[in-house]
Design the sequence.
């Protein structure tokens, strides 16, 4: 076993030891109806706000919250060990619906919340946006409640558009034309930048795919070689190949692409709205004063950006304390808590909060408008909905890289289709 494997194993054992120590502290945390709710969460701004408010929940309910907060890798390690073992040591779990949700639900790790979400009219399940709800529903059963959402929007430079006498692009054709015009008029400035890494680009490419009328999977089969998918691959990759940064690498994730945009290296950039402060913070961005936001330009099928829950809360099916676990989720996802967290910069899933002036008071006005529009048109996934998400992204992302480098993306899409079909057969 190498050093990396030893370090990772040590991290898992440490996390488990901490969990066992906490559970053995003298309370009956695992007992049915226990007044201690054990909540496992990821390191996130959302978590920071919840932690500060937990004393209010404890006072209101008479319950005690035992919080375990871990980095994403440690969180995954702990879930892999405890959930696979059928452990009841976790009551409430923070998880990523599009990364591990299908695997967890298929394995029976997530409790069915369908009756619970409909029981409290004041809490109002119908207030949650359709895209995130779709992502936390498995085989017609609600298995999670969204807490953090994001959509893909267009970041752009107001000064460059003004200088070129251009309007904000409303269609993909207008985006391409504007990128061409600005890049030709401003040597050294790219017309467009976005993620380029084979896996990293998949989520942002997805909105282009949907807007061209395609998807990764249709009727349970690969759709990555469809006419619509091939057009989307060629368009996304062509924007970067023709109007992107010089000598662009093909391994950029959001941080590298964002850096190019915020340092003044590009006119247009499509990215998750949740990352907007990187572009508007003068301490991070040289173009903070000139950044604008708009909905994703419409393709042949319209403007169809993803609208997803990046994180959700669920109840461990093995928990013996599910009623009290639900009380915590109901409180943490209430309208009041969602408003408070959203005002702190974490986009939430409730339509009423976005419709309330208070819910958008801390966001740039044009970004709030773009989010509102995107939420209505949004698609509830940004990657293939499968159990082995990482492997799938590597397959369907290959044609993106081919298009970026000027290779034959149609041929690569055909190759990816065959590989993805075999992959999907193996997932059955």
Sequence:
């Amino acid at each position: 076993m190498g050093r990396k494997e030893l370090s990772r194993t040590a991290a898992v054992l440490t996390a488990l030891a901490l969990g066992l120590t906490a559970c053995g502290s003298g309370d009956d945390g695992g007992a049915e109806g226990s007044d201690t709710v054990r909540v496992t969460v990821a390191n996130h701004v959302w978590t920071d706000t919840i932690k500060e408010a937990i004393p209010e929940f404890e006072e209101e309910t008479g319950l005690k919250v035992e919080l375990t907060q871990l980095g994403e890798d440690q969180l995954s390690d702990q879930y892999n060990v405890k959930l696979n073992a059928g452990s009841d040591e976790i009551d409430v779990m923070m998880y990523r619906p599009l990364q591990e949700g299908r695997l967890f639900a298929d394995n029976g790790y997530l409790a069915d919340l369908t009756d619970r979400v409909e029981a409290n009219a004041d809490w109002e399940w119908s207030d949650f946006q359709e895209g995130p709800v779709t992502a936390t529903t498995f085989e017609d059963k609600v298995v999670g409640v969204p807490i953090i959402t994001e959509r893909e929007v267009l970041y752009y430079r107001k000064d460059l558009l003004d200088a070129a006498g251009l309007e904000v692009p409303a269609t993909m054709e207008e985006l391409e034309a504007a990128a061409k015009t600005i890049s030709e008029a401003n040597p050294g400035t790219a017309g467009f930048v976005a993620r380029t890494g084979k896996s990293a680009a998949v989520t942002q490419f997805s909105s282009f795919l949907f807007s061209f009328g395609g998807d990764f999977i249709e009727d349970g089969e690969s759709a990555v070689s469809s006419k619509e998918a091939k057009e989307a691959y060629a368009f996304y990759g062509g924007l970067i190949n023709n109007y992107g940064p010089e000598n662009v690498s093909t391994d950029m994730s959001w941080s590298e692409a964002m850096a190019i945009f915020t340092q003044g290296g590009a006119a247009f950039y499509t990215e998750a709205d949740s990352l907007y402060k990187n572009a508007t913070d003068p301490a991070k961005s040289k173009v903070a004063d000139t950044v604008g936001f708009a909905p994703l330009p419409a393709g042949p099928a319209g403007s169809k950006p993803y609208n997803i829950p990046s994180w959700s809360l669920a109840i461990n099916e093995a928990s013996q304390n599910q009623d009290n676990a639900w009380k915590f989720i109901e409180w943490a996802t209430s309208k009041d808590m969602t408003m408070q967290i959203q005002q702190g910069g974490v986009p939430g899933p409730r339509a009423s909060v976005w419709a309330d002036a208070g819910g958008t008071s801390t966001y740039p006005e044009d970004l709030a408008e773009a989010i509102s529009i995107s939420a209505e048109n949004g698609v509830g996934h940004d990657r293939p909905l499968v159990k082995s998400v990482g492997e799938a992204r590597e397959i369907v992302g290959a044609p993106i890289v081919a298009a970026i480098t000027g290779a034959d993306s149609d041929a690569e899409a055909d190759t990816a289709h065959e590989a993805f079909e075999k992959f999907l057969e193996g997932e059955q």
Q: What stands out?
A: The radius of gyration is 22 Å. The longest strand covers residues 145-157.
